[in-house]
Amino acid sequence: MKTITAQKPFEEIIEALGEIEKVFLVGCGTCATMCQTGGESEVLQMKEKLEEAAKIVTGWMVIPTACDDLTKEALRENAESIEQAQAILVMTCAFGVQTVVGWSDKPVYPALNTLFIGKEDAPGYFSEVCMQCGECVLAWTGGICPVTSCTKGLLNGPCGGTNNGKCEVDPEKDCAWTLIYKQLEKQGRLDIMSKYQPPKNFQAVVKPGKILIKREGAM
Amino acid sequence: MTRPFREVLNSGKFVITSEVAPPKGTNLEKVLHHIDLLKDKVDGINVTDHQSSVMRFPSLGIVILIKERGGEPILQMTCRDRNRLALQADLLFAYSRGVRNVLCLTGDSITVGDHKQAKAVFDLDSVQLLRMVRTMESGKDLGGNELNGAVEFCAGAIVTPEAQPIEPQLIKFEKKVAAGAEFFQTQGIYDLDNFRKFMQYARQFNTKILAGIILLTSAGMARYMNKNVPGVFVPQELIEELASTPKEKVLEKGIEIAGRMIKTIKEEALCDGVHIMAIGREELVPDILAAAGI
Prior knowledge:
The structure holds 2 protein chains of 2 kinds.
Chain A: E1 2-7, H1 10-17, E2 22-28, H2 31-34, H3 40-52, E3 56-63, H4 71-77, H5 79-84, E4 87-91, H6 94-103, E5 108-110, E6 112-122, E7 125-128, H7 146-149, E8 166-167, E9 170-174, H8 176-186
Parallel strand pairs in A: 2-3, 2-4, 4-5
Antiparallel strand pairs in A: 1-6, 6-7, 8-9
Chain B: H1 5-9, E1 15-20, H2 29-38, E2 44-47, H3 59-68, E3 73-78, H4 84-96, E4 101-105, H5 126-137, E5 154-159, H6 167-178, E6 183-188, H7 192-202, E7 208-214, H8 219-228, H9 236-243, H10 250-267, E8 273-277, H11 285-291
Parallel strand pairs in B: 1-2, 1-8, 2-3, 3-4, 4-5, 5-6, 6-7, 7-8
Helix pairs in contact in B: 4-5, 8-9, 9-10, 10-11
């Protein structure tokens, strides 16, 4: 499971930084490196572009996993160059950005947009696998998620927008419910598809998500 | 005075419905003209709900106008823009103003319309929406609370007989029947052989089927629909018939084709009626009916 990110337009980053001149750059060695949005080479490219835009980069680092607690240590190790900066520009997912926020008093700016939790199907092609609805439906959908993969998140079968097994919003995109049908047919379980599915409980995960999972044997 | 739509549906009469589109703005002149033209010629007038996800005057507003002018409105209701609270509230209001028919639809995707950055709702789907209507008729809302004054609707749905693949579509059709869909208006159909096959299947269910008839206005439009409109298939011979007609006569030809199809469907008693969609040319519906000998 990886967090898929995309770089913000450089102009947006410059506009957000505004008067800020000196920045420290943070990248991530995990998801953002895999997406080629915040790995070492992207951090160095960003450094170059910022310098071309008359900014001063006081230092940079690529934290192995920016969302990890070790981010605190990594920031401490670079305390001197961070201190010289007026802001930290973070090239990680929003989780990494917020982890940096938690361990630094400097203003923190995101350089990436966090898109979804997904996988890389082919080089550069990413797709969403789960949107964390809190009520997993995969048991009765042949293991294919309509909440995520159907553009309308339909629970009772395809809409009229199915076009030769593709979706009305994108002729390249498979219709999730056509895939589900084919899978259930292959498994001889089409009867499952005939079962009425009631409206989804959109409070299965409260917003913002928060839960105490009681573990057996724990205090 | 128009008869209640449910009564017509169950009368054995060949049912004819058509539709009008709300304006983009507050100028109701054209839609009122269409309503006046249609109200005594058809058994029900659908009002589209932000058709193709294009923001317009609400269908709820137009159905009330139809009611006031003595017509029999069918409120189209999609799940795209309203959550279950708003859908129920609109049904309460519609019922209070004498609206008794509702067509339950999923709704097009936001991204095909003119507000592409809007948040898509889809809190319910079309099957759940149908069941919601039936729940409200029992005197309860979807939260299980008592309603002070219930509703009663003749509820319908849509089906796409030309969908590819058809099997998942039929499973959903059956779910809609089980959810209480009293009638179906189909997506536009042109291939009557294929439609006969669909009807052989659909006949076994206790519901009424109205075949969707979309007026063809040119060969280009037919080709465009084949390429871009999911579930619509215009056979080559119809395209050629339009293409070989001189430009100034092509609209007449489209009317003739629609009339001919309706006539065949009626004579063969292929299904229970037709739903005529003259997309943007609603004033031609009486001509189509005349061409069909109705």
